[in-house]
Amino acid sequence: MSDPEKNDPPINRQITPQSAANTPSSPAMTPVRFRGGGFAPAPVRGVGILVFVLLIGGAEWGTRAGFITALTLPRPSDVFATLVELYRSGLLAEHMIPSLTRLIVGSLMGISIGVSVGVLIGLSSWFRAGLVPLVAALFPIPKIALLPLFVIWFGIDEGSKYALIAFGTFTPTVVATYGAVDNVDRTWVRMAQSFDHRWWSIVRGVILPAALPGILSGLRISLAIGIILLVAAEMLGAEYGIGAYILEAGSLYDLERLFAGVVILSALGVTVSFAIGLIERRVLRWRS
């Protein structure tokens, strides 16, 4: 008779770690690298600043070497000297304070209404049926083209500027918000319903937190549009503001002052994006 142990199938043979270690032909066990990072972006510091330094250094070298004419691009060092002079003379504050006030007030109006309407569209079939066609009709309209109309309606003072910025930030916020609400995993909603949670509890505890990443991403676009419309509004009937400063510098063909205004707008955009990034890291820790 044959030995029954030799006829056992391989699946029935149990190999313990001790026996595997004592087997001469067993390969050495090596740790396996964790590969479940989920494509999470790793922070790389200094690269963004390096890009700015290289661009500014290249422009400075090109203007000093003669490859770039002064009529095309001023020296970055001259633009920096203009910014320093603006700060020392107090003109920087005189232009920045009105611009920041207009941007904050107008954006708060447009974003708050836009988020509210977007959530209602995402949650209610009646609001969706009535407002989505209206938003689709308003969204592609160039908001700058409506500036003369807002001047007629609200006057040439601050009212027209607030209204233009609010309307310009409203439509992209609505689209981003109800899109984010639509993308919420309905399994989470059904799970909350199975535990007999109330409607408002589901909205507050499930839908809004899950939609928050999409809403914050939409705010980046909305605030960038708000800065663009701020400059356009200040170029029409504003004595102080970054847009009025750039318009005056352009009419005098003062490239140093013109580029100084552009740098201020760029710094404002970077600051807004950095602030939204801080908010995302604070309120979206659950994604990590």
From TrEMBL:
Domain of life of the organism encoding this protein: Bacteria
Transmembrane segments annotated in the record for this chain: 103-127, 133-155, 162-179, 199-216, 223-246, 258-279
Tagged with keyword RNA-binding: no
Positions with biased composition (Polar residues): 13-27
Record's subcellular location: Cell membrane
GO cellular component, one term: plasma membrane
GO biological process: one example: transmembrane transport
Keyword terms: Cell membrane, Membrane, Transmembrane, Transmembrane helix, Transport
InterPro entries found in the cross-reference section: MetI-like (IPR000515), MetI-like_sf (IPR035906)
Domain ABC transmembrane type-1: 96-280
Record's keyword annotation contains Transport: yes
Its membrane topology: Multi-pass membrane protein
Annotated stretches, region: Disordered: 1-27
Location, primary (coarse class): membrane
Family: Belongs to the binding-protein-dependent transport system permease family.
Name of the protein this chain belongs to: ABC transporter permease
